[in-house]
Task: structure prediction
Amino acid sequence: MPDPLSPNVQHLKASETVAISNEAKRRKAAGEDVYDLGVGEPDFDTPAAAAQAGTQAIQKGMTRYPPNVGIAELRRGIAAQLSRMSGGRAIDPDQLVVSSGSKQSIFNACFTLFGPNDRVLIPAPAWVSYPQIVHLCRAEPVLVPGDIEWGLKVSAKDLDRHSTKTTRGLLLCSPCNPTGAVYTLAELRSIAEWARKNQVWIISDEIYRRINYGSGPAPSLLDLPEELLERTVIIYGASKAYAMTGWRIGAALAPPHLTKSMAALQSHTTTGANHPAQWAAAAAFTDERVDAEVNRMVAAFRRRRDYLVGRFRADAPGVEFVEPHGAFYFFFRVDGIREKDPVTGTNFCEQLMKQEGVALVPGAAFADDRWVRLSYAVSDAELEAALDRILRLIHRLESARAA
Ligand code: PMP
Ligand code: GLU
Result:
């Protein structure tokens, strides 16, 4: 028997979304006929102006240690972008810490805020890494089921029901991974008011903010008055809307004392995010050509969303799904497809991979295995072909029910 590992990792499991993506890539590389609608990663290349800024940074010798909290140009660029999206609100770049992806920003914020005996509320279904990160802080994740009649979102009342004296945090995600639901400003306000009253920190993961199908970016906590934001961390990043997943750039905006602690934590772990990547991201947040490119990508995601929703409505009218208003995920329910012997998300995804060669993520990864997540960040042609296969399986399961 190997030595037991530290209690720090007693709950640790590898990310299912990352594992499914690796498996789909492996099968594709082996020549298998596989469509990967599992991982949440844009199919587009990084916009040219951002990529060029990255290669130029390497050529100019920006290859030494970066400033630990991020280069000033990037922090100013992110602050300006956040400010533009929230009606010109003043954002202080010194309150931003740049990290190796927003995943690290979320980790930094949680590790700095939460510890043993703290409870952290997580609306469910929830992105796979949230409960894991809370566990790594030795705090307790508390899943708060979303309302099925309401796009699986939670209300202040739901949060209150799951709250105790030791509740110290809330991890909120809008636009939401895995459902594509988007909280309205009124909903965010009511949650922020509840959090202020109960002295709960909100870590608001707004990484998908620009991928919103209403007008302009999705509502943000930054659209609320200052007095509601005393205990708030905003998470933002380059990965999704800017098609820069591999550059690993994210950021957290937080009150000064927290920023200082997150910076100190990072000074002992990564010494800051990859230096040339920071120059690429600085261009991404400031260059107008990239901005136009982001708008084109969001328009493509919207077109695919419309196509997907249209096909499900027409060809699988009995299958329930969350109306997707943002991000690039479609969350549909599989336990009703075959009433007598209901399929789980895990079972559906296994059959789909085996019989049809399509990778999706079972709801189990997001704490609710009645559902399945599809990422439509793939080309239109792939989406159409994969959808034919998915619907074929649904119809087979439906006729097994009728038989
Ligand atoms: N938050 C959410 C909701 C996500 O879906 C992702 C995707 N990996 C992340 C954070 C982390 O993204 P990254 O580390 O690439 O910035
Ligand atoms: N966030 C993406 C997803 O949910 C990327 C993989 C990950 O980091 O979890 O698929």
Remarks:
- The chain has twelve helices and twelve strands.
- Residues 15, 17-18, 39-41, 127-129, 177 surround glutamic acid (ligand 2) (CB under 6 Å).
- The two ends are 50 Å apart (CA to CA).
